[in-house]
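Please predict the structure of the following assembly.
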Amino acid sequence: MNHDNETPHESAPYSLYLLTWLALVLLTATTVTVAGLNFGRLSILVALVIAGIKSSIVLTWFMHLRQESKLFHMILLVTIVVLVIAIGLTFTDILYR
Amino acid sequence: MSQSVALVGHRDYTGSKLGMWMFLATEVILFGGMFLLYAAYRSDYPGDFHAAAGELNTLVGTVNTLILLTSSLTMALSIAACHHGNRKLAMIMILVTVIFGGAFMVNKYFEWMTKIAHGIYPSSEFLLAHPKGEIIFFGLYFTMTGIHGLHVLIGMVLLVGMFFKVMNQPNAQVSFLSGHGLQRADGGRLAMLDPNGVPLWKSEPIDDTMERVVVKTKYWPVKSRFRVEDFSLLENVGLYWHIVDIIWIFLFPLFYLIT
């Protein structure tokens, strides 16, 4: 087997996953607490930012994206860009109709 | 005379992962479309969405979030256990993940049943008497959590399959392709020797009528010998499980935390 063009996947210690989980639980507690406070329009922004951070933690550590090839990062990036374009164009339509 | 022949056991690790990541991209687009609908209607009916979200139980939503996050942990641990050569732990962690998935679905069931008992379900008379934005909110709620729940169910079925696969591993098939190593073994026999050179098993004599020799070996790699490609199927199921978790990470604040 030829692994020359692959990033070696070192087997991570169990404690790394426990720490990842702990970070996710803390962020969940944060988002629930923040939702209880009244930030008005800012609330949704804070909630989405926290959800984004949680997602990138899952992607990086649980889904091992940090060890994967650049190609997979590109697939993810293109997907997100497509979504952002779709949502962005829809909102320019909604807001300036 | 003995001659060693290279074993051919082709597994395309990057290829299998590439296919999975492309599939995950389509899943993101599938849910992305629904999130787009949510965003568009929410900007049209912010007050109704606000009022309708008050009907949802934040505690149930939070508990389900924690259940799914923890199931992601056990999923990652099962793969890590494979990499550490600990099959027993891997199997336990897969089972625990399935149990957490089941707990999520049980919670979801009671949540939906409570809503339905209150007369809140698509096209119910009770709901149709409400403002348009609330009807849309619950339409999106049932559609999005429903399709998400379906994904959790599919993930659970896949994980049960993976449990048996991991249980039946070590089990790998390697083959000698004709035209490569096989001709060189013409006239000889294929044998498996123990470290002292004592034959454990011998094949029929190999001649040119033989097209292909398939050897099924059973082994469970210890940590120092593990190959990631032996577990690419389990890793792909894990990726699916994690993307379902990520989708819930967005569903949770958008439906439960906007009161």
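The mean pLDDT of chain B is 87. Chain B touches chain A through 52 residues (CB under 8 Å).
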